[in-house]
Design brief:
Blueprint (H helix, E strand, L loop, with lengths): L6 H12 L2 H9 L15 H7 L3 H9 L14 H8 L2 H9 L19 H7 L3 H9 L14 H8 L2 H9 L14 H8 L2 H9 L14 H8 L2 H9 L13 H7 L3 H9 L14 H7 L3 H9 L9
InterPro entries: Ankyrin_rpt (IPR002110), Ankyrin_rpt-contain_sf (IPR036770)
Protein name: Ankyrin repeat domain-containing protein 29-like isoform X2
Pfam family, one: Ank_2
C-alpha cells in the first residue's frame, strides 16, 4: 500500500476531503496517483470522502477501483465513517461495491471492535441501522467488552432505535463481560423510556452486574425517580444484594429523598442492615442527609404494645 508521498497523492487526498469532484477526476486522469494511497494514520481518499459525505467523490473513487476494505490504523473503514455520519446513500453505495457489512474497528486487542452497526446505533441513525441489518449485519455482534448494539442503544437513550432492534430479535438480556445488561445500563443512565421498553420486552428486572449491583440499586444510587418506580412496579427486589447493600441504602447514602420515600412506600425495609451493620437511616445521617435520616427513623415500625 502506497503512502501519501507524492504531490499527486496529496492532491487526491485534498480533493476527497473537500469534495472537489473536478479536481479529484483531473488528478486521477493524470495517471500518476495511487487510488488507495494512505496518510500517516492510514486514511485513504475513499475514507475521507465517505467521512465527509461527498457522495460524488465516493462514487468516482469506487468506479476507479478504490478498495472499501482498507482500514485506518485505528481499524475504521469508509463504511464505518459513513455509518457514523448517517450518510445513507454512501452506506448503500459502499455496500453495493462490496464493503464488508460487519468489518470490526480493531486491528489490535486494545481497540473496541465495534462494527458499522455499533456506531450507527451510538449515533442514532435508524435508517442506516435498518440498511445494515437488511444487508446481513449481525445484530448479536459484541464489542471487545461484550456490549451489543442493543446495549449501545440503551446506554445512549435511543428509544425508537432500541424498539426497532428488539423487533428484529435483539436479546434484551444479553450481558456485557461484566454481566451488565441493557436494562442495567439504561437504569444507571436514567433513561426511563428505555427502561420501560426493556421491561415490557421481558428484561430480567434483577439481573445484576458482577459487583452485585442491580438496575434498581443503580437507579436508587443515581436518584432516577421514574426509573426506580418502573423497576419497583415490575417486582425489583428490596433485599440485601450480593454487594452487601440494598437499593434503599444506596438512595439514603447519596441523598435521594424522593427515591427513599418511594422505596419505603413500596415496602422496603427501613431496618435492614448492610454488610457493615448499618441501616439506611444511619448511612444518611453519616453522609449529612439529616432530612432523609429523620424520615427513615419516623418510618420505622412501632413496637409499642398496649396494656
Amino acid at each position: 500500500m502506497s503512502l501519501k508521498d507524492s504531490p499527486s497523492d496529496q492532491q487526491l487526498h485534498l480533493a476527497a476531503l473537500q469534495g472537489n469532484i473536478d479536481l479529484l477526476k483531473r488528478t486521477i486522469d493524470g495517471g500518476r496517483v495511487h487510488i488507495d494511497s494512505q496518510d500517516k494514520e492510514g486514511t485513504t481518499p475513499l475514507i475521507l470522502a465517505a467521512a465527509n459525505n461527498h457522495y460524488g467523490c465516493v462514487k468516482e473513487l469506487l468506479d476507479q477501483g478504490a478498495s472499501p476494505h482498507i482500514r485506518r490504523h485505528t481499524g475504521t473503514c469508509a463504511l464505518f465513517f459513513a455509518a457514523q455520519g448517517g450518510f445513507l446513500d454512501i452506506v448503500k453505495l459502499l455496500l453495493d461495491k462490496g464493503a464488508p457489512v460487519d468489518i470490526p474497528s480493531h486491528l489490535s486487542p486494545l481497540q473496541d471492535g465495534g462494527t458499522p452497526l455499533f456506531v450507527a446505533c451510538q449515533c442514532n441513525h435508524l435508517a442506516v441501522v435498518r440498511e445494515l441489518l437488511g444487508r446481513g449485519a449481525n445484530i448479536h455482534a459484541t464489542m471487545a467488552d461484550g456490549a451489543t448494539p442493543l446495549f449501545i442503544a440503551a446506554q445512549n437513550g435511543h428509544c425508537k432505535l432500541l424498539r426497532f432492534l428488539l423487533s428484529k430479535g435483539a436479546n434484551e438480556n444479553q450481558i456485557r463481560k461484566d454481566r451488565a445488561t441493557p436494562l442495567w445500563i439504561a437504569s444507571q443512565m436514567g433513561h426511563a423510556d428505555i427502561v420501560k421498553e426493556l421491561l415490557d420486552a421481558g428484561a430480567q428486572v434483577d439481573a445484576a452486574r458482577e459487583d452485585g449491583a442491580t438496575p434498581l440499586f443503580k437507579a436508587a444510587h443515581k436518584g432516577h425517580v421514574e426509573v426506580a418506580r418502573s423497576l419497583v412496579n415490575h417486582g425489583a427486589t428490596f433485599e440485601l444484594l450480593n454487594n452487601g447493600e440494598s437499593a434503599l441504602h444506596a438512595a439514603a447514602l447519596f441523598g435521594h429523598l424522593k427515591v427513599v420515600k418511594d422505596l419505603v412506600a413500596a415496602g422496603a425495609n427501613v431496618n435492614l442492615k448492610n454488610k457493615e451493620g448499618q441501616t439506611p437511616a444511619e448511612l444518611a445521617r453519616d453522609a449529612g442527609y439529616d432530612v432523609i435520616a429523620e424520615f427513615l427513623m419516623k418510618a420505622r415500625p412501632s413496637y409499642q404494645t398496649t396494656v
